Amino acid sequence: ILDNWKYHKSKVASYWLVKLDSTKQRKVLDIVRTNVRSALQRIWREPDVESLHLYRLFNRIFNRLLWSHGQGLWNCFSNTGSSWETIFSKSSEVVSPRELQCCRRLVQLCRDCLLVVYKFVSESRGSLMGLSPEWDDTR
User: Fold this and answer.
1) With the CA atoms of 36, 41, 43 and 45 taken in that order, what torsion angle do they form, in degrees rounded to the nearest 10?
2) CB 12, CB 114: distance < 8 Å
3) Please, what is the average pLDDT of the chain?
4) If both were cysteines, with which of 13, 67, 117, 132 could 72 make a disulfide (CB 3.0 to 4.6 Å apart)?
5) CA count, 13 A, side-chain hemisphere, 45
6) To the nearest whole percent, how much of the chain has pLDDT over 90?
7) Are 61 and 107 in contact (CB under 8 A)?
């Protein structure tokens, strides 16, 4: 997709910004959130990752990426528009260079996840009507 971005850009934008409602957008990012949460629990051997400063930073980023019906994540695909990093520059919270590097990786994972979901849906359905019905099963 990235190799032929000019062709796919408008299709990915339409899929993310128009065809997916906020619940389905959140489900896409929840793929990353769940995996990152699991990794943090293993790395820090901490069952309550909400108490970790890094996880709280990640939550702020997830919220920013979903901002304005997904515009936050979409802005990460271009060099224009407001960046997710502004949430840190406008706050008095101290973010270490290593934490910022982790946050950048998180955003990259979210971008990649969107592209994988887009590719999966476009190939499996032949159209981009939305995520598969199994995604609505919350078990």
Assistant:
1) 170
2) yes
3) 86
4) 67
5) 0
6) 61
7) yes
- Encode pLDDT of 85-137 as tens digits: 888 877 788 889 999 999 999 999 999 999 999 999 988 865 444 445 454 44
Q: For residue 15, what is the DSSP state?
A: I
Residue 44's pLDDT is 86
* CA distances to 17, 29, 83, 93, 100 from 86, in Å: 21, 20, 6, 12, 12
Q: How far is CA 8 from the centre of its chain?
A: 18
CA–CA separation, 125 vs 69, rounded Å? 24
- CA 8 to CA 120: how far, in whole Å? 14
- Model confidence, pTM: 0.84
